[in-house]
Amino acid sequence: MHPMIKKVLVSEEQIVQRCKELGKQIDEEYKDNECPILLVALLKGSVPFMAELMKRITIDVQIDFMDVSSYDGTESIGDIKINKDLDGSCKGIDIILVEDIVDTGRTIHTVKEMLLNKKANSVKIIALLDKPSRRVVDISADYVGFEIENEFVVGFGLDYDQNYRNLPYVGVLKEECYK
Ligand code: 5GP
Fold it and tell me: What is the 3 state secondary structure string of 79-131?
């Protein structure tokens, strides 16, 4: 375990197993689609989850990435800035938005609205982690890996000041890291 990690909340094995289950669920729900679905991952935190999940989906998918910023350190801030938009049009496409964690819900709410405004056929949300106790916007993910308590977590894509994204598990940092 990394020396700055106090405890592991979700292990690599648990994440892999859950991605297999979620992949099957997505296969089942979209199996009659005529066109590939589009998985849209939000950079940078969702990259490891996207990579693990997409391998477990057997129906045809395409992928794209968006970069939006809404988070500074450990506190969520209001507005969402688009740093990178989709490469192509999403008109008429069924999208699954891939998010690392849903906290206040502002990010997924705003991005979902944006994609629907661009005439996506449908937008569902999949999140590796969900902190329902922190929600300020009335939105929930359609698929959730793990529900967690109100704790700041790192690993499997999630950072603290850009560090710890490479940890293969989700964990909680020791207090001394914040000093
Ligand atoms: P929301 O818009 O739902 O408040 O925030 C979602 C974003 O906030 C996530 O994509 C993530 O970047 C960041 N975030 C929320 N909770 C945590 C957390 O516990 N740890 C880390 N590293 N980022 C978090």
Answer: EEEEEECCCCCCCCCEEEEEEEEECCCHHHHHHHHHHHHCCCCEEEEEEEEEC
Looking from the CA of residue 42, the nearest atom of ligand 1 is: 10
By the 8 A CB rule, do 22 and 30 touch?
no
Q: Residue 35 C-alpha to ligand 1 middle, in angstroms?
A: 31
Mutate to test the pocket of ligand 1, among 6, 71, 82, 144 (most ligand atoms within 8 A of CB): 71
138-to-44, 93, 106, 123, 141 alpha-carbon distances in Å: 24, 24, 9, 16, 11
Looking from the CA of residue 106, the nearest atom of ligand 1 is 2
Name the 3-class secondary structure at 178. helix
CB 71 near ligand 1, within 6 Å: yes
Catalytic residue numbers?
103
pLDDT, tens only, 54-68: 999 999 999 999 999
CA gap 23, 57 in Å, rounded: 5
Tens digit of each residue's pLDDT (9 = 90 or more) over 113-135: 999 999 999 999 999 999 999 99
